[in-house]
Automatic annotation (TrEMBL):
Pathway: Lipid metabolism; fatty acid biosynthesis. It catalyses: malonyl-[ACP] + acetyl-CoA + H(+) = 3-oxobutanoyl-[ACP] + CO2 + CoA. Homodimer. InterPro entries: ACP_syn_III_C (IPR013747), ACP_syn_III_N (IPR013751), FabH (IPR004655), Thiolase-like (IPR016039). The gene is fabH. Residues 106-186 form the Beta-ketoacyl-[acyl-carrier-protein] synthase III N-terminal domain. Residues 252-256 are annotated as: ACP-binding. This is Beta-ketoacyl-[acyl-carrier-protein] synthase III. Residues 235-322 form the Beta-ketoacyl-[acyl-carrier-protein] synthase III C-terminal domain. The active site is at 112, 251, 281. Belongs to the thiolase-like superfamily. FabH family. NCBIfam families: fabH, PRK09352.1. It comes from Streptomyces polygonati.
């Protein structure tokens, strides 16, 4: 039997604070209708001052471990664009707070594709026999890097975290990750960027350089192309046709991106998992949060064929597939 990584448990959390479109319209040149029409987002969750990415990651990790019925893993991978500090990585702190001190742990920075990259890392370690289990977390506090005066980004992003526990198993088991397609194109790095704060530009030349920036039109085009392409590659690796997919979980960036990708794949809209209306774009947390909501809402059921795909800064993209297992979700 081929050794594979199998999804054993899923946990998710969003902070209690809700920011509605109407609340944003009070301080920005926008409206609820403008935001909904262009993004599909009605509200997003944001942390209170003093709450960091690790705080969200720990809760999501605790819930995933509880759902999996375990308190130990061999590896912790944290996908985030918003680490607690530029140095050190946030994953070791999260692991220690989860009672996993001494376990290998590291951050993955692939922006909105981060969770897929994290699954790839965890699955690779398990398939190679380097680990028997892994906790993969996507966690973000995007409210910490957004320019509050920029309506092009402030209306899109939210905070949250989601996590899965992977265990070693067989490729023929429900929950086994059945193949990956990952890629990147650094020539497009400026499409999604925080210009200042790194070794290239330590100090902001302009105040806006310290904040997250995005070229929305170009991101839309490349996101559709790359998410569709990655999904098709995974379909080829699994031997599925598009008609075989019961639940398509794309990165929750924009409802128009999701619908366009589904249309080009030939998938009916009712097979899309969508929760961005409630949580916005949560970057690396997007896919596990969407999985959790889809499972709770009955959109995602045991035995369903599932394709996950995302596009993010770098630029990066990726996809994977699995048959959804009968697991707990917390």
């Amino acid at each position: 039997m081929t050794r594979a990584a199998v999804v054993q448990g899923l946990g998710a959390m969003v902070p209690p604070g809700i920011v509605t479109n109407a609340m944003l319209a009070e301080r920005l040149d926008t409206s609820d209708e403008w935001i909904r029409t262009r993004t599909g987002i009605a509200q997003r969750h944001m942390v209170e001052p003093g709450v960091a990415t690790s705080d969200l990651a720990v809760v999501a990790g605790e819930r995933a471990l509880k759902a999996a019925g375990t308190d130990r893993v061999d590896l912790v991978v944290l996908a985030t664009t918003t680490p607690d500090h530029p140095c050190p990585a946030t994953a070791p702190s999260v692991a220690a707070r989860l009672g996993l001190a001494g376990v290998a742990s590291y951050d993955v920075s692939a922006v909105c594709t981060g969770f897929i990259y994290g699954l790839y890392a965890g699955a690779g370690a398990i398939a190679a026999g380097l680990a028997d289990s892994a906790l993969v977390i996507g966690a973000e506090t995007y409210s910490s890097i957004l320019n509050p005066e920029d309506r092009t980004t402030s209306v899109i992003f939210g905070d949250g975290a989601g996590a899965v526990v992977l265990r070693a198993g067989g490729a023929d088991e429900p929950g086994a990750l059945l193949g990956f397609d990952l890629g990147s194109d650094g020539s497009l790095a400026d499409l999604i960027m925080i210009p200042a704060g790194g070794s290239r530009q330590r100090t902001p030349v302009e105040p806006a350089d310290a904040y997250f920036t995005m070229n929305g039109k170009q991101v839309f085009r490349h996101a559709v192309e790359r998410m569709e392409g990655a999904a098709r590659s995974v379909l080829a690796k699994t031997g599925w046709r598009a008609d075989d997919v019961d639940c398509f979980v794309g990165h929750q960036a924009n409802i128009r991106i999701l619908r366009t990708v589904a249309l080009q794949l030939g998938l009916p809209e009712d097979r899309l998992a969508v929760n961005l209306d409630r949580v916005g774009n949560t970057s690396a947390a997007s896919i596990p949060l969407a999985l959790a909501d889809a499972a709770r809402d009955g959109v995602l059921k045991p035995g369903d064929r599932v394709v996950l795909t995302a596009f993010g800064g770098g630029v990066t993209w990726g996809a994977t597939g699995l048959i959804w297992p009968d697991i707990s979700v917390f």
